[in-house]
């Protein structure tokens, strides 16, 4: 018999299982909050991958085709491109939408869009908006306003109240029926899924499954003056969502990408701290590791078209002064550990990394000058 000796004395292989640094957030998933007369805790979180699946699942859960949640789910999946996933969180009638959202977050953080089905009470919707704004998890609330253009823009209306709050966490659309706003949410989620490697704008998108509203330009102007959105026909053939803004006036896609950037930077920081095989010393070399990782993240967003080289028009910030042009739309910097306060060093804190960003923006109008020689 031949005796075989171990090769470990020559070459020893050590296999390390590296934890995934994927984010718990899902920026292409929507959540419908659905009041349910036959609520049970098992219905607190339902997941669907298609309109057919959602229709069957909601009927099984006790909904009918006339219920707002049922109609909203089908309109959500009717978007083009269609989103890949929908979450529905049922809640008892005694619960508020804000409380229902908090309960859903106990189950999962795998969503970005939120649509409250069957919640027409203004106070409840304002409380939900506050819950979304104050939540640690980044979300965007999709709300409908219905009625006459005069009523939705009147003093004290929901649209005016949200405008006065200047929330960048709610997108309000003037629609024919409330479930139409779920189609807007589905459009936003579907576009994010389809543009995983490139940037998109919600402005001027076509929303499948809902009808454009017959509005005069004056009525459109009145709604948009309160940062509301409209779905209208331009030039007889163009069905357009305008302008894809939150109640604060920020464009939806810009709010989305800032949330994604913050999430990606946080994930990268935790990954470096958790997955490092050795301790990270409180030295400038460690700061360089953080900055290198963050630079790679931001370069990815520049490649997608979210960030772009441009003129810094803000106040002086670290090495940046007005008129400087950050390459690829970002600059990172941090102070030296030589200047770290004793209390921060004793608490084992890293030096704060500062980030300056320049969003690429998006074109929404153009002037065409035609010069004619006669």
Please explain how this structure is put together.
This protein has 374 residues and is α/β, with parallel strands linked by helices. It has 2 domains: 30-254, no CATH class; 280-374, no CATH class. It has 11 helices and 10 strands. The chain has helices at residues 51-60, 68-77, 97-107, 122-134, 149-152, 158-165, 180-194, 217-225, 252-275, 284-304, 342-346; strands at residues 30-35, 46-48, 86-91, 113-116, 140-145, 170-174, 230-234, 238-242, 330-333, 354-357. The strands form 3 sheets. The chain has a 6-stranded mixed β-sheet, with helices on both faces. A two-stranded antiparallel sheet has the order 7-8. Helix 4 (122-134) links the parallel strand 4 (113-116) and strand 5 (140-145). The N and C termini lie far apart (103 Å).
Quick recap:
With 374 residues, the protein is of the alpha/beta class. It has helices spanning 51-60, 68-77, 97-107, 122-134, 149-152, 158-165, 180-194, 217-225, 252-275, 284-304, 342-346; strands spanning 30-35, 46-48, 86-91, 113-116, 140-145, 170-174, 230-234, 238-242, 330-333, 354-357. The chain has a six-stranded mixed beta sheet with strand order 2-3-1-4-5-6, with helices on both faces.
